[in-house]
Amino acid sequence: GCSTPSPTASTTPSTTSNRPDLGIANGERPGEPVDLSTVNVQGKPTLVEFYSDQCPPCIEMARVLDSLAAARQDLEIRRLNIARSGHQGIDFDSPLSEQHGTESVPSFRIFDAQGAEIAREKAAKDQVRQWYSQAQMDQRGEADPATRKTMDDYR
């Protein structure tokens, strides 16, 4: 991930914001404070990603999250851009980043169907990795019943 500003990075944001299940939740006010309860989807687990469009691993993560969103209809995914409009580099000093203690991106939080936070940082990243691996196995028809049961139990 990215943990230090990179003023030379130049990329464009992901074009996935128009998908109902993978939205940039703060597209109108990037970098500004966000109450995470307003981005959670009641009745479904919600994965929240903090990212910067100036962070190459975040750009790559958008592809992974697209794939995950397609495979997991039971999971809502929301992305929060930590960079304020016009800021060069990764904006770890933004109000949003400071509000949620974001020290590196991409960074994740997972909320259960009732909106309670159930994982953050490394634990959330590990869960995303597991979900993505499972989705890839399912696409190839390689998921064994025990792995599928584990994933079903987590949902």
Your description of this structure?
This protein is α/β, with parallel strands linked by helices and 155 residues long. It is 34% helix and 15% strand. The protein contains four helices and five strands, in the order E-E-H-E-H-E-E-H-H. Helix 1 links the parallel strand 2 and strand 3 (76-81). Helix 1 packs across helix 3. The longest helix has 20 residues, at 121-140.
Note the main sheet. Answer: 5 strands, mixed
Q: Which strand-content bin applies to the residues?
A: 15-25%
Number of helical stretches of at least 4 residues: 4
Kindly report the average pLDDT value: 81
What is the C-alpha radius of gyration, as a whole number of Å?
15 Å
Oligomer: single chain
Overall, the morphology is globular
Order of helices and strands: EEHEHEEHH
> In which range does the helix fraction lie?
25-40%
Total E-strand runs = 5
Widest beta sheet: strand line-up? 1-3-2-4-5
Distance between the termini: 26 Å
Residue runs with pLDDT of under 50 for 5 or more positions? 5-21
Relevant terms:
alpha/beta, five-stranded mixed beta sheet, 5 strands
Give the SSE layout.
Blueprint: E1 22-24, E2 46-51, H1 56-71, E3 76-81, H2 95-100, E4 107-111, E5 117-120, H3 121-140, H4 145-154
Parallel strand pairs: 1-3, 2-3
Antiparallel strand pairs: 2-4, 4-5
Helix pairs in contact: 1-3
In summary, what is this structure?
The chain is of the alpha/beta class and 155 residues long.
